[in-house]
C-alpha cells in the first residue's frame, strides 16, 4: 500500500542506530495505536453496554406496560382506553426490544469482536515480541562484551571458543527475533486500518438493519456506501497485507541463509574477505576508551560513522550523532593495549584530542585505520574518492620501496650491486625531480655509506674515548649536539619566540655534507625505505619547542626534555616537496677528535612542515639580531669606559698642574724676604747648612701640602 513506512528487514543484522531510531518510531506508533485502540474499545464497549441496557430497559418497559392492568392504583379507576393504548405501546416497545436485542447481538459480533481480537491478540503479540527482542539484544551485548574482554594469551582457547559460540548463538537469536519483530510491526500498519474500519463497519451495518423500517432511500445510500467500504476492506487491505507478509517471510528466509557466516565476530577465512584500503566512508560498532580517573579507564560500545571529514558517534536511542573529532590532517596508528585487542588511536591535527578505539576483528581495525588515513588526506572531497584513494595508496607503497643501493647497504639478502647509476636513478622515488646539484654529487657525497639509522630517540652520549676521558676528569658528560653540561638546566624563559609543535620522530642518520640542499630529501627517502623494509611503524611522539636559543624535544606526558639542539648548530631545515607533513633539519656539531659531524633528523608533524621550518628560520634571525644588538651594547659600554678613563686622566693631570703651580707660588713667596739683594747689587750667598735647612723646610712643606 503506498505511503506506508516499512522497517527494513535487510538491515536487521547490522543493527545500526538509524535502524534503531526507525524502530523507535514504529514502537512509538505502536504505543499510540495501543492507547488509541484502548480508548476506542472503551467507547465501543460503552455503546455495547448502553445497547444492552437499552434492550433490557426496553424489554422491562414493555413488560411493565403489559402489567398495567394488574396494577391497583388507590385513586385510579378502570380506564380501558388507557389500558388498550398502553397495550399497543407495549406491543410496539416489545418489538423494539426484540430489535434492540438483535442489535446488541450484531454489535457484539460485528463491532466488539474485531477490536477485541486486535487488542488482545495482535497488540499483545507485539509486546511479547518486544520483550523477547529486548532480552535477545541484552544477551548479545553481554556476549560481545565477554568476547571483547578476552585476553591475548593463547592458553585459554576453550574460553575463547565458548565466547565465540556464545556470540554466534546470541547474534543469531537477536537477528531472527528482530526480523520477526520487524515483520509484526510492518504487518501492524495494515492491521490497524482493518481493526479500526471493521468495528465501525459492523456498527453501521447493525444500525442500518435496526433502522430498516426507516427511510428506504437513506438506507439504500448507507448500504451502498458501507458496501463499498466493506469491499475495499476485504479485497484491497487484506490482499495487500497477505502479499506483503509473503514478501517479508521470503526475505527472512533469504537473510537467514545468507547471513549465517556474518554472525561470528571474526572471519574464519581471511582470504575470503580481504582488507579494503580504498574506503573513504565507514560505519560500525567500536569500543571507545574513557578515562574514569588518573590511571583507570572504561570501555563503552558505541556506533561510529564518518561524515565528510568528521568522526561521529551515536548511542542507541539517539536521533542524531555527535562529533568525536575532526579527521582532517589527523594521524592514526595501531596501538597495543594491555587488556584489549585490535586497538587503534587517532590524534587530531593539533594534538589536543586523542581517541583510542577497539574493533571486533583485525580486518575491521585495518579498514578503520585506512579509512581515517584516507580522510585525513582529504580524498573524500574529490569526485572519484575510492579511485583516488587506490592511486594514493599505490603511490605510497612505491614511495617507500627501497632503492637497490639502500638494500645493498642494509640487507644481506641482496648482495648484488648496481653501481652509482642505479643509486642516482632512485632519487626520483622521493616524490620530486632531482636537482642540478644531485646530478653532480653522487649519493655517497650526501649520505655516508654504511651509516646506521636511528629510529627511536635515545639520550645523546659521547662515542669518542677522548671525550669519555675528559668527561671522567671534569665530572660532566659531553654532548655531541653541542650543548654543555652547565647550561643544559637553563631554560630560555626570556626568549622572545616560544612556539610548540607536535611531531613524531621518524629517524636520524649521519650525512657527509650539511650544505647541500638535497641532503634532507635523500635522508627522508632512506629512512622511509628502511622503515618499510623492516616493518617499523611505531613512532615516538614529542613536543618540539622552538625558541631563540635552541630546539627542544619534550616528552608530552612527563614534560622532560628528551633532546636539546642549540640553534647555532642547525645548518638548514626544509620540508618534503610533496608530503608537507614531513620535515627535517641538519645539525652540525663538533666531535671529540676535533672534526665536525653532521646528522640529519627527520620528523612528521600534524601541521604543515613548512610552518615549522619558517619558525626555525625566524628563531635564527631573531637570535642573529639579538647577538648583533648585544655586541653593539658591549661596544658602547667599552667606549663609555674609555671616555671615563680619559676624563679621569685629564682631571689627574690638571690637579697635578694645580699642585705644581701652588708649590711654585709658595716657594717664591718664602724665598723673597729671606734673600734681599745687597746694596752693591750682589746677592747674599747662604752657607751650606742654611741651604740644606731651607731645602729640608721646603720638602717638609711639600710633604705637608701633599698629605693635606
The geometry reads as elongated
Number of helices: 13
Radius of gyration: 51 Å
- Distance, first to last CA: 130 Å
Question: Based on helices, strands and strand pairing, what is the structural class?
Answer: alpha+beta
State the main characteristics:
708 residues, alpha+beta, 7-stranded antiparallel beta sheet, 13 helices, 53% helix, elongated, cell projection
Describe this structure in words.
There is one protein chain. With 708 residues, the chain is α+β, with helices and mostly antiparallel strands. Helices cover 53% and strands 15% of the residues. The protein has 13 helices and 14 strands. The strands form 2 sheets. Strands 4-3-2-1-7-6-5 form a 7-stranded antiparallel sheet, covered by helices on one side. Strands 11-10-9-8-14-13-12 form a 7-stranded antiparallel sheet, with helices on both faces. Helix 2 (80-148) packs antiparallel against helix 3. It is elongated, with a radius of gyration of 51 Å.
Helices and strands, with pairings:
Elements: H1 17-66, H2 80-148, H3 157-210, H4 216-258, E1 283-291, E2 297-307, E3 310-314, E4 322-326, E5 331-335, E6 343-347, E7 354-358, H5 362-376, H6 385-399, H7 404-410, H8 419-425, H9 436-440, H10 465-474, E8 498-511, H11 519-534, E9 540-547, E10 550-554, E11 561-566, E12 570-575, E13 582-590, E14 596-605, H12 609-674, H13 688-707
Antiparallel strand pairs: 1-2, 1-7, 2-3, 3-4, 5-6, 6-7, 8-9, 8-14, 9-10, 10-11, 12-13, 13-14
Helix pairs in contact: 1-2, 1-3, 2-3, 3-4
Amino acid at each position: 500500500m503506498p505511503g506506508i513506512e516499512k522497517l527494513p528487514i535487510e538491515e536487521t543484522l547490522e543493527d545500526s542506530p538509524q535502524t534503531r531510531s526507525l524502530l523507535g518510531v514504529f514502537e512509538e506508533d505502536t504505543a499510540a495505536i495501543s492507547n488509541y485502540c484502548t480508548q476506542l474499545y472503551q467507547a465501543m464497549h460503552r455503546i455495547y453496554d448502553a445497547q444492552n441496557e437499552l434492550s433490557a430497559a426496553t424489554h422491562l418497559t414493555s413488560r411493565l406496560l403489559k402489567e398495567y392492568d394488574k396494577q391497583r392504583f388507590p385513586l385510579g379507576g378502570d380506564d380501558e382506553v388507557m389500558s388498550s393504548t398502553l397495550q399497543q405501546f407495549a406491543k410496539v416497545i416489545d418489538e423494539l426490544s426484540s430489535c434492540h436485542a438483535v442489535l446488541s447481538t450484531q454489535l457484539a459480533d460485528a463491532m466488539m469482536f474485531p477490536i477485541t481480537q486486535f487488542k488482545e491478540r495482535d497488540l499483545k503479540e507485539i509486546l511479547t515480541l518486544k520483550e523477547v527482542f529486548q532480552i535477545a539484544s541484552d544477551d548479545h551485548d553481554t556476549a560481545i562484551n565477554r568476547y571483547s574482554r578476552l585476553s591475548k594469551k593463547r592458553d585459554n582457547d576453550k574460553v575463547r571458543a565458548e565466547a565465540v559460540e556464545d556470540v554466534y548463538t546470541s547474534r543469531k537469536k537477536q537477528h531472527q527475533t528482530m526480523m520477526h519483530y520487524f515483520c509484526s510491526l510492518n504487518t501492524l500498519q495494515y492491521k490497524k486500518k482493518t481493526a479500526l474500519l471493521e468495528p465501525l463497519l459492523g456498527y453501521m451495518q447493525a444500525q442500518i438493519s435496526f433502522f430498516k423500517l426507516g427511510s428506504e432511500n437513506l438506507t439504500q445510500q448507507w448500504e451502498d456506501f458501507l458496501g463499498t467500504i466493506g469491499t475495499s476492506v476485504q479485497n484491497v487491505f487484506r490482499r495487500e497485507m497477505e502479499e506483503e507478509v509473503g514478501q517479508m517471510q521470503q526475505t527472512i528466509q533469504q537473510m537467514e541463509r545468507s547471513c549465517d557466516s556474518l554472525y561470528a565476530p571474526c572471519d574464519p577465512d581471511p582470504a575470503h574477505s580481504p582488507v579494503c584500503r580504498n574506503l573513504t566512508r565507514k560505519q560500525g560498532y567500536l569500543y571507545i576508551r574513557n578515562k574514569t580517573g588518573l590511571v583507570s579507564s572504561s570501555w563503552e560500545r558505541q556506533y561510529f560513522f564518518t561524515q565528510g571529514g568528521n568522526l561521529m558517534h551515536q548511542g542507541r536511542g539517539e536521533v542524531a550523532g555527535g562529533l568525536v573529532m575532526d579527521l582532517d590532517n589527523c594521524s592514526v596508528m595501531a596501538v597495543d593495549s594491555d587488556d584489549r585487542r585490535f586497538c587503534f588511536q587517532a590524534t587530531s591535527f593539533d594534538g589536543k584530542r586523542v581517541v583510542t578505539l577497539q574493533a571486533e576483528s583485525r580486518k575491521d581495525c585495518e579498514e578503520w585505520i585506512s579509512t581515517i588515513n584516507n580522510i585525513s588526506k582529504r580524498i573524500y572531497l574529490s569526485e572519484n574518492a575510492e579511485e583516488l584513494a587506490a592511486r594514493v595508496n599505490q603511490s605510497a607503497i612505491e614511495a617507500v620501496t627501497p632503492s637497490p643501493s639502500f638494500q645493498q647497504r642494509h640487507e644481506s639478502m641482496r648482495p648484488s650491486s648496481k653501481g652509482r647509476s642505479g643509486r642516482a636513478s632512485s632519487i626520483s622515488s622521493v616524490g620530486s625531480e632531482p636537482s642540478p646539484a644531485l646530478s653532480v654529487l653522487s649519493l655517497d657525497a650526501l649520505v655516508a655509506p654504511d651509516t646506521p639509522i636511528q629510529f627511536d630517540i635515545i639520550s645523546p652520549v659521547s662515542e669518542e674515548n677522548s671525550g669519555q676521558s675528559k668527561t671522567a676528569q671534569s665530572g660532566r658528560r659531553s654532548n655531541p649536539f653541542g650543548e654543555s653540561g652547565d647550561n643544559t638546566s637553563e631554560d630560555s624563559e626570556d626568549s622572545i619566540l616560544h612556539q610548540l609543535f607536535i611531531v613524531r620522530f621518524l629517524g636520524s642518520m649521519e650525512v657527509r655534507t650539511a650544505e647541500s640542499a638535497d641532503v634532507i630529501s635523500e635522508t627522508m627517502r632512506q629512512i622511509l625505505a628502511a622503515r618499510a623494509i623492516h616493518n617499523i611503524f611505531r613512532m615516538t611522539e614529542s613536543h618540539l619547542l622552538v625558541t631563540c636559543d635552541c630546539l627542544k624535544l619534550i616528552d608530552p606526558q612527563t614534560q622532560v626534555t628528551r633532546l636539546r639542539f642549540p640553534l647555532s648548530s642547525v645548518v638548514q631545515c626544509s620540508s618534503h616537496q610533496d608530503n608537507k607533513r614531513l620535515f627535517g633539519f641538519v645539525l652540525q656539531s663538533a666531535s671529540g677528535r676535533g672534526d665536525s659531524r653532521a646528522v640529519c633528523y627527520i620528523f612528521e608533524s600534524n601541521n604543515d612542515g613548512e610552518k615549522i621550518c619558517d619558525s626555525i628560520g625566524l628563531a635564527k634571525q631573531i637570535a642573529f639580531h639579538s647577538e648583533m644588538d648585544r655586541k653593539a651594547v658591549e661596544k658602547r659600554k667599552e667606549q663609555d669606559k674609555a671616555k671615563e678613563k680619559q676624563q679621569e686622566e685629564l682631571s689627574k693631570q690638571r690637579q697635578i698642574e694645580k699642585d705644581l703651580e701652588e708649590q711654585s707660588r709658595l716657594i717664591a713667596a718664602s724665598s723673597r724676604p729671606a734673600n734681599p739683594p745687597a746694596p752693591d747689587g750682589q746677592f747674599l750667598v747662604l752657607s751650606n747648612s742654611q741651604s740644606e735647612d731651607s731645602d729640608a723646610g721646603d720638602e717638609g712643606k711639600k710633604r705637608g701640602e701633599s698629605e693635606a
